[in-house]
TrEMBL record:
Top-level lineage group: Eukaryota
Residue ranges crossing the lipid bilayer per the database entry: none
A Pfam family assignment: WD40_4
Region (Disordered): 452-471
UniProt entry keywords in alphabetical sequence: Coiled coil, Repeat, WD repeat
Underlying gene: LOC107674167
GO biological process, one term: actin filament organization
Species in which this protein is naturally found: Sinocyclocheilus anshuiensis
GO MF annotations in UniProt: actin filament binding
Protein name: Coronin
Stretches assigned to the DUF1899 domain: 41-105
UniProt feature, compositional bias: Low complexity: 452-462
Family the UniProt entry places it in: Belongs to the WD repeat coronin family.
Amino acid sequence: MRRGHKAKCFITKTCRQSGISLEVAARAFPFLSLHVIMSRKVVRTSKFRHVFGQAVKADQCYDDIRISQMTWDSNFCSVNPKFVAMIVDASGGGAFIVLPLSKTGRIDMSLPTVCGHTGPVLDIEFCPHNDNIIASCSEDCSVMIWEIPDGGLISPLKDPVVKLDGHSKRVGILSWHPTAHNVLMSAGCDNVVILWNVVHGEAVVRIDSMHTDLIYSACWNRNGSQILTSCKDKKLRVIDPRKGSVICEKDKPHEGSRPVRAVFVSDGKILTTGFSRMSERQVALWDPNNFSEPLTLQELDTSSGVLLPFFDPDTGVVYLCGKGDSSIRYFEVTDEAPYVHYLSMYSSKESQKGMGYMPKRGLEVNKCEIARFYKLHERKCEPIVMTVPRKSDLFQEDLYPDTIGPEPSVEADDWFAGKNGEPILISLKDGFVATTKNKEFKVIKSLMATTSSSSSNRQSDSVVREQRESSALIPKIPSAIHTICTPDEPILKEE
């Protein structure tokens, strides 16, 4: 037995030094059982092995909120370091609320909402480059861009900054470009994907003949040079967004007929969640350069809820949140087989109707917080903190590499012309709050302005903002707007 133990240690050490997997070693040394050799994998070295989730105290939740009863498979929630937004029930149209993060406790029923849609709101997402800008889409076939004032709403917001019309059926998916300023992607039940230039209020790219059925999910890669979609026609497509052409596709990533979700993960690989023929939930990892077989395919359970994946590129951890589940599973994605390593699971008593995911720059780094979710219940929103236990209170550099900041690396016109921009990274060592306010006003001005006559825009932008805020000057708004806008570039809707 002692000799076998020494042999196992020798083999595992040799494998580690030479880069050979333990499965290969098991075939090369048949005199040792696979169980003995693979036993080391039970205690695989990882700094995220002991990550644990914990719900915040009751007084830090957002209570008495009527979360939307729609059955659409979206997150129903969007979060950034300033606000949390949730889709709520509304009579005679669609609405969502936007709360400052600090406004916890019981939420007054008379709280102002964003209520410009005439049909139920299906998806919302904050702009990654401006914390005061949020996009929404609805069953009324429209996409709207809203500006939320600092401190939250003091009256109902009915008029969007920009309204984007171009879909013929309800719009259910929104995604801002990760690096290009004011570029928004939307996908609707008309099987069309549209890329918008929000500044001009126009659809620049329209992909309308590629998808033959309902689009389940659509997302960008890290620098926004590719789009990944999953569709009801059981195909996974990697798309060049500006050319509107398919780079590669995979037929039936999962055998089941239930919805498939897909996201880009590290090194351009693709992680999908779906169902088997026997309706078992699965998670799979794919290499787009070789779509013939998955790198790994794991079965999880037999629940019916669609798994929503959230990937953290800084840590390589992917979180799977099921609609209707009461748990959050998390896995680490690595370059070693089986590539997707199960870490742990956060469980609670109540099921989730939706989930918001906080960007890295909004986390408390001094508490070793690596992720924060905003779980929607029937009548409340409950933050859940994911923490790596560490004894030291010092900044943990291995947990917080430089992360994506709010500064865009390329403007919309340049990106549509073919220019790519890598994410501009920031350090979280000294906190992020100090740099927020300097960038916000610039971003709001560039959103409100058009690209024509940029010099006059800078002079008149403050006048437009004052006129919007003053009810006494409302009759003068159309003439002021006429001086800086063209008819093809709607900025504010005139009643």
